[in-house]
Amino acid sequence: MKAIVLLCLLAFTGLVFASDPHKQHDVNYMLWKVNEEMRDPAMKALEDSFDPEGASAHYDDGGASIHKLMQELQQHRLLEQKHWFSLFNTRQRHEALMLYDVLEHSSDWATFTGNAAYFRKRMNEGEFVYALYAAVLHSSLTQHVVLPPLYEVTPHMFTNSEVITEAYRAKMTQTPAKIKSSFTGSQSNPEQRVAYFGEDIGMNTHHVMWHLEFPFWWDDSHESHHLDRKGENFFWVHHQLTVRFDAERLSNHLAPVEELHWEDPIHEGFAPHTMYKYGGNFPSRPDEIIFEDVDGVARVRDMIITENRIRDAIAHGYVTAKDGSKINIRDSHGIDVLGDIIESSTYSPNTQYYGALHNTAHVMLGRQGDPHGKYDLPPGVLEHFETATRDPAFFRLHKYMDNIFKEHKHSLPAYTKEELEFTGVAVDSIGVEGPLETYFEDFEYSLLNAVDDTVEIDDVEISTFVPRLNHKDFSVNIDVTNNNGATVDGTVRIFAYPRFDNNHVKFTLNEGFWNAIELDKFWVKLSPGANHIVRKSSESTLTVPDVPSFKSLIEQADAAVAGGSDLHLEEFESALGLPNRFLVPKGNSNGMEFVLIAFISDGKADAAVENLHTNTEFNHYGLEGKYPDNRPHGYPLDRHIDDERVIHELPNWSHSIVKVFNHGEHIHHN
Questions:
Q1: Residues 490-524 as b or e (16 or more Cβ within 10 Å = b)
Q2: Closest by alpha carbon to 379, among 264, 272, 241?
Q3: Helix/strand/coil for 537
Q4: How far apart are alpha carbons 285 and 288 in whole angstroms?
Q5: If DSSP codes are grouped into helix, strand and coil, which group holds residue 136?
Q6: 415 by DSSP, 3-state: which?
Q7: Where, if anywhere, are coiled coils annotated (predicted)?
Q8: Best CA proximity match to 156, nearest among 284, 28, 38, 35
């Protein structure tokens, strides 16, 4: 099985874990037509027959979570159905997490499914979907269950409103339809050239799934484990989104995205062309608006004060905890503390003082179309992780925060030769086999869950197809010499960065390293003498394949239940990584030049736990609750270089110049 830990060190093993087809079946039908009546007869019967408070012994918290939620339900305090849901709405999040707690504390599958069926009928649909996704990802009861693709569960969050309207028309006339979907905007808008990146449904899914796996609300006192290096993970995943977006911009002859700032105009407006299932259209934002205070959220002045406090902490090299003590951040662990503060998560040592820069900024930016609630508009796209990357301002916002992280990273001392070298190991060369060539293809997904329905009327097939970026298969070839006289463990770290900026000025080594895209990271055993490593693009530990369609998951689980057979979906257990189509940027017709880097570090020193190189028990949080790689994310490119000779004289790294081509090829839908 290949288990994904986002942007970290993983392993391919010979172990195969079968999914429980009954659990997969139940989760499928909990989410199928989630806005309509339950379609599975057995689970539909549970909606009214199940008694959530029937036996406290079936909850590992003694029933505290279910009593709390039932009291809210019985006193009619919960958000009604047929209403929008946003995780950034404090009350709505609290309600969703009450259901999450109930599911998480269910001690057996019958209690889990009974509660899911019961509250599916009675709670807001958006709250239900969020709670169920979070519970399936984190509950010990749902290991190896594959969640259906969100873009087929809640298609409104991923699909243009024009397409949704066509889908409704097809449903009303009972006419099968395959509807072409386009990106927002027009060719007169330069940002349209990179809409394929931010509006890619795989990218949207990657972003929301990361925030589900590493949620800002996670509280160790209520959970079974600690999310190791969560703050650093927050930095790294958004840093990689930012540098990848810049690489896509350079591919399309655009300048790198400029950072957003509270006292400057927001130059780019945005018309989302998306609509809520319930609640109207997502709000638009005109060009060149000035940030305004948002009623009930924050003042612009508050955001500036929060930023200054964080920058002061970086300058001083420590943060002040809630109890007044000082926490050093001028070391490799500091980025983890800083990430917890900037997001901010429950791991922040002092939320009252350092605020929640990231989370508040999302709401501030999302509400700029109606900052004072004059028009009673629903939340903007920035207030949903599913839709946030559709807005180009998302990347401006994260460039702003990325530069704060950069300020911290550059305050750390440069790596010494001793911290970088791998004694006796030399990387002789790195190259690419096969074309580095990208193309566009049409991808089809179902819209059956987008339209209203009744059990009396049969479904007709309604789907949409949208262009998306892909690349041809290639391999990275690395030649390594091990002069140690014995087999050693190594960690191979592969990066690439654009060689030139948009003015064709060559990036300095420091600029290139900060803008480097991580392509892969994996363990190797290096035999004495010459070693030839061939790493296929399809093997990257940082990417995931498309999850099977919702219909396919239902059909496979139903067939396994009926036939009493195992269900093998282990390849799709995590949707956490980047889409495997996005490993390399688009490039251009002339061939966009990248500097390709291979760095091999001491695997024994890198391993965060014992026997990592032979142990196969990986999960989403690393091995034994620890992140498996001791090194900081981005090592060794994450710090500035004082003397380039230290890098150039290292034997355990090598680089080459490669070109990524895009010749305008588009594989169209049949």
A1: bbbbbbbbbbeeeeeeebebbebbbbbbbbbbbbb
A2: 272
A3: helix
A4: 9
A5: helix
A6: coil
A7: none
A8: 35
Can you read off the two tokens belonging to residue 191? 């940002």
Nearest to 469 by CA among 197, 655, 164, 99: 197
Question: What's the CA gap between 439 and 434, in Å, rounded?
Answer: 15
Nearest residue to 620 via CA among 569, 577, 583: 577
CB 240 within 8 A of CB 518: yes
Cis bond before residue 636 (omega within 30° of 0): yes
- Output the pLDDT for position 222: 87
Strands, E, within 483-638: which ranges? Answer: 488-498, 517-526, 529-536, 543-544, 578-579, 592-602
Helix H or strand E segment including 363: helix 357-366
Q: Stretch 80-93: mean pLDDT, rounded?
A: 97
DSSP 502-528: TTSPBPPHHHHHHTPEEEEEEEEEE-S
Residue reference for tokens 């300058």: 315
With CA atoms as reference, report the closest residue to 490 among 647, 602, 399.
602
Q: What is the DSSP letter of 538?
A: G
Q: What is the torsion angle, in degrees rounded to the nearest 10, for the CA atoms of residue 307, residue 309, residue 310 and residue 311?
A: 80
- Number of Cβ within 10 Å of residue 266's Cβ equals 20
Rounded to the nearest 10 degrees, the angle between the axes of helix 21-31 and helix 41-49 is 70
Average pLDDT (588-612) is: 91
- Dist. CA 606–CA 490, nearest whole Å: 8
In this structure, the strands spanning 529-536 and 475-482 are antiparallel
Burial of 564 (0-12, 13-18, 19+ CB in 10 A): exposed
- Please say whether the beta carbons of 28 and 36 come within 8 A: no
Q: How far is Cα 349 from Cα 338, in angstroms, rounded to an integer? A: 10
- φ/ψ of residue 147, rounded to 5: -80, 135
Strand partners, 526: 488
Cα torsion angle, 454, 455, 457, 458, sign = positive
Number of residues assigned to the chain: 670
Q: What is the pLDDT of residue 8?
A: 43
Vertex 169: Cα angle to 168 and 172 (nearest 5): 85
**pLDDT, tens digit (0-9, with 9 covering 90-100), for 365-405:** 999 999 999 999 999 999 999 999 999 999 999 999 999 99
| Closest residue by Cα to residue 140 from 21, 20, 235, 250 | 20
Q: Where are the beta strands (DSSP E) in 366-487?
A: 425-433, 437-446, 462-471, 475-482
Residues 6+ away with beta carbon under 8 Å from 333: none
Query: CB-based burial of residue 172 (10 Å sphere; 0-12 exposed, 13-18 middle, 19+ buried)?
Result: exposed
Three-state DSSP class for 482?
strand
Give the per-residue pLDDT at 565.
Answer: 86
Would you give the end-to-end CA distance of the chain in angstroms?
33
**Do residues 619 and 13 make contact, with C-beta atoms less than 8 angstroms apart?**
no
Contacts of residue 31, Cβ cutoff 8 Å, sequence gap at least 6: 129, 132, 147, 148, 153, 550
- Check: pTM over 0.90? Answer yes or no: yes
| pLDDT for the residue numbered 614 | 60
Q: Kindly give the interhelix angle for 109-122 and 90-104, rounded to the nearest 10 degrees.
A: 150
Residues 636-670: tens digit of each pLDDT: 999 999 999 889 999 999 999 999 999 999 988 66
Strand order in the sheet with 475-482: 425-433, 475-482, 529-536
Continuous segment of H or E residues that includes residue 248: helix 230-251
DSSP state of 631: S
Q: Is the pLDDT of residue 622 over 70?
A: no
Please report, as a single letter, which amino acid is at residue 643: D
